[in-house]
């Protein structure tokens, strides 16, 4: 059953759908599907936690190995054969052989990357749903509202609840793209593709010094508009902005070329990935002029952040998995509100304690081959959530 009620504005409407309340067997069937999904999530969490510890320790060992082997170069303007195949550290300004162009808009810049970002003025649909029970039925009231916004991706209006009056074009007349310089150097050294990929600190390019490229394009601020009236755009109008990364030549408006610090393997006049004994790859690039110690400190910090983020993701996957697998107990007592709420709290506490214990145990197993003492300590720590949980349970009364 569907009911429509307009709110007076064509940009907003409400739809109410209703369905009969699912029976016990139907809810039990849904819970069974959730249990299967929970089991898959639960098993995946073990894989994520275990492999993450090995990755973190391997990366840390590779960084320590790199720090012990790296050679700071005396000069970036000459290639020394003595350093062939070795891990080297250098810092200097970026340089590219020729500017990057966008002939469609009469724009050029001496940089490693030039990105054209195209946005289209489009309708966007927003949903706000609420569920409630009425006359033994579950009703869902959904409020749909529509707004016009600049978007980088085409919004498919065919998926809207009501497309009439909110239709978007199916494609953009102008495409976004990123141009990358084919040859990027620091002094006499050519950077590998992997190092060039790390130059991604994009800044918006000011268009104040440029003319309007052609009659149907108007410049407004830092945008080129394909619109009859940029102040009052219509659906389907375009605006184009530009971004650059790695300024590789002195520019009167943007300043001097960007400086970078690189640690990589020297191969002839190229800087390429260095393969460590631990099985990792080192090819590091940071903006600015950094010492060897500063670079490796940043890499260790980045590794630590990634490790903790994946640990948190692993624990959360385990918690969600256990919650889904134990959901059946909640369904069995669903008819009794007080009991249901108590069981729900108990199941959440159970999932929290078990997920915490098993996560710590998995992490300790991951450390077993690398640092056995730490593995033992973390293994002992995994018992703490269970002990705490048991201590919260009141003892049975004496007979």
Automatic annotation (TrEMBL):
Cellular component GO terms, alphabetical: endoplasmic reticulum membrane; nuclear inner membrane
BP GO annotations: lipid metabolic process; nuclear membrane organization
Protein name (Swiss-Prot/TrEMBL): TMM43 protein
Spans traversing the lipid bilayer: 32-50, 308-329, 349-369, 374-393
Topology in membrane: Multi-pass membrane protein
Family of this protein: Belongs to the TMEM43 family.
Organism: Oceanites oceanicus (Wilson's storm petrel)
Keyword Transmembrane: yes
Organism ancestry: Eukaryota, Metazoa, Chordata, Craniata, Vertebrata
């Amino acid at each position: 059953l569907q009911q429509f009620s307009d709110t007076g504005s064509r940009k907003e409407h409400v739809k109410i759908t209703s369905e009969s309340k699912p029976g016990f067997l139907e809810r039990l069937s849904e819970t069974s599907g959730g249990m299967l999904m929970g089991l898959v999530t639960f098993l995946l969490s073990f894989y994520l936690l275990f492999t993450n510890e090995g990755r973190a320790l391997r990366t840390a060992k590779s960084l320590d190995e790199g720090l012990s082997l790296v050679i700071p170069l005396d000069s970036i303007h000459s290639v020394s054969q003595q350093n062939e195949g070795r891990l080297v550290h250098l810092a200097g300004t970026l340089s590219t052989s020729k500017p990057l162009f966008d002939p469609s808009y009469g724009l050029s810049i001496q940089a490693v990357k030039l990105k054209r970002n195209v946005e289209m003025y489009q309708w966007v649909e927003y949903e706000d749903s609420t569920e409630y029970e009425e006359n033994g039925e579950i009703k869902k009231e959904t409020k749909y509202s529509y707004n016009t916004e600049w978007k980088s991706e085409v919004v498919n209006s065919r998926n809207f609840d009501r497309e009439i009056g909110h239709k978007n074009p199916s494609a953009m007349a102008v495409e976004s793209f990123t141009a990358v310089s084919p040859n990027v150097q620091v002094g006499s050294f050519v950077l590998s593709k992997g190092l060039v990929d790390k130059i991604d600190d994009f800044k918006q390019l000011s268009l104040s010094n440029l003319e309007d490229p052609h009659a149907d394009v108007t410049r407004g601020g830092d945008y080129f508009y394909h619109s009859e009236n940029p102040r009052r755009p219509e659906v389907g109008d375009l605006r184009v902005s530009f971004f650059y990364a790695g300024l590789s030549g002195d520019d009167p408006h943007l300043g001097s070329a960007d400086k970078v610090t690189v640690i990589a393997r020297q191969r002839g006049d190229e800087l390429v990935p260095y393969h460590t004994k631990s099985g990792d790859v080192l090819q590091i690039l940071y903006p600015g002029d950094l010492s060897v110690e500063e670079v490796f400190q940043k890499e260790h910090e980045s590794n630590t952040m990634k490790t903790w983020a994946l640990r948190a993701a692993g624990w959360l996957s385990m918690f969600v998995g256990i919650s889904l697998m134990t959901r059946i107990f909640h369904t069995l007592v669903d008819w009794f509100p007080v009991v249901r709420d108590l069981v729900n709290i108990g199941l959440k506490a159970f999932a929290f304690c078990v997920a915490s214990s098993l996560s710590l145990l998995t992490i300790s197993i991951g450390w077993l081959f690398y640092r056995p003492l730490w593995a033992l300590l973390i293994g002992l720590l995994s018992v703490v959530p269970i002990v705490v949980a048991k201590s919260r349970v009141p003892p049975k009364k004496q007979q």
